[in-house]
Inverse folding.
């Protein structure tokens, strides 16, 4: 009997389209002899849909007219099963069920732990990070603070909220300029290089901050590492087991790897419409394995595992590194807790196919769920029998 896997994607995020790309490609690489793949799409207006047409890229190009071929649904737990209920007025009809949730989402409102928390309350095995790992990994300021506690090096930075900048712009600018130009300005909770700019002077800094504030209330500004080499390393696992991919050396002619670098290009999917060949990083230039020394390779592997463990991650995470080629200093830039393409292209040279990767991720989610079920999560208590809503606790009860 096949396991029903609900692949959940989309969401009210500026990375909505990137999530669609990643999910369509992943669904092509789930073993359908073992699993029944059920696409579950969250539209930008936060409605949930299912249907086979959601595996076709053309559906999203013309979604307003194509959604008639889908079913609007909600998730509901009944007994030991989580059902997809068709929404039609006040009536609900079960159209399918899922055994495992496989979120392939990017950005604020979905990848930040919001979605995984909801799915966990339904009592589902969930592929990928839990609430804590997802939320810490999403916030670029909090993750730096956590990594600092583990003595894991990150670039020097300044962070602030929009109201602080609006109240005293000069004070914020002064703090940033102490880092020294050039600097990188980032929204604190976005990915895919969205809203990120490089500033070389006060004027371009102000413009970069204004652009970042269009996306986020919380901004982080980092020193720009000189003599830059960008490396990526993915980690697959959970709290007790971690497997690293090969290390990728990124190649770009820009100061930053751009959105266009990452997500243009494609190949034919199951239905004949285009599905990008790597989901994320599909058009980027990179060398795998990276052309670095054995000593640096070992340092990156060690920092990757340390970061993965420090952030309480599960599933597959791609960790991005910045290296000063002149000094050899290695810095963690940020983790991608649900990376585009699930970073399959970094495991493939080791002999692990994309289908093997998704299979391991699903099995790991089920195993972790079963292990957690063995832990005590509630206990019997007579506390409510001693409680009177009008008078409070009975005398002697604390």
């Amino acid at each position: 009997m096949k396991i029903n896997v609900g692949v959940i994607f989309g969401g009210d995020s500026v990375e909505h389209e990137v999530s669609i790309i990643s999910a369509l490609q992943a669904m092509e690489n789930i073993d359908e002899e073992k699993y029944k793949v059920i696409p579950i799409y969250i539209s930008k207006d936060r409605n949930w849909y299912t249907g086979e047409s959601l595996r076709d890229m053309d559906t999203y190009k013309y979604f307003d007219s194509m959604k008639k071929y889908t079913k609007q649904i909600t998730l509901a737990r009944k007994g030991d099963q989580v059902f997809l209920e068709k929404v039609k007025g006040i009536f609900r009809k079960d159209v399918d069920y899922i055994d495992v949730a496989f979120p392939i989402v990017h950005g604020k409102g979905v990848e930040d732990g919001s979605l995984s928390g909801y799915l966990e309350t339904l009592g589902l095995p969930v592929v990928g990070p839990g609430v804590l790992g997802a939320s810490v990994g999403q916030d670029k300021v909090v993750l730096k603070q956590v990594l600092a506690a583990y003595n894991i090096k990150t670039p020097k930075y300044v962070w602030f909220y929009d109201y602080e900048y609006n109240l005293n712009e000069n004070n914020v600018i002064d703090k940033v300029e102490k880092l020294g130009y050039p600097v990188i300005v980032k929204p604190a909770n976005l990915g895919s290089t969205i809203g990120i700019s490089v500033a070389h002077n006060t004027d371009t800094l102000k413009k970069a901050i204004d652009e970042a504030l269009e996306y986020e209330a919380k901004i982080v500004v980092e020193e720009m590492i000189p003599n830059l080499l960008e490396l990526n390393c993915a980690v697959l696992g959970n709290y007790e087991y971690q497997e690293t991919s090969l290390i990728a050396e990124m190649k770009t002619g820009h100061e930053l790897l751009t959105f266009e670098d990452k997500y243009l290009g494609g190949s034919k999917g199951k239905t004949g419409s285009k599905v990008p060949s790597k989901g994320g990083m599909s058009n980027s230039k990179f060398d795998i394995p990276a052309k670095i020394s054995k000593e640096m390779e070992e340092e990156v592997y060690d920092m990757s595992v340390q970061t993965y463990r420090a952030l309480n991650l599960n599933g597959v995470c791609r960790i991005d590194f910045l290296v000063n080629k002149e000094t050899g200093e290695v810095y963690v830039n940020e983790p991608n807790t649900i990376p585009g393409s699930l970073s399959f292209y970094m495991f493939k040279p080791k002999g692990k196919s994309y289908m093997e990767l998704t299979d391991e991720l699903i099995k790991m989610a089920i195993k972790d769920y079963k292990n957690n079920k063995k832990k005590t999560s509630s206990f019997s208590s007579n506390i409510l029998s001693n409680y009177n809503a009008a008078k409070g606790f009975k005398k002697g009860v604390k």
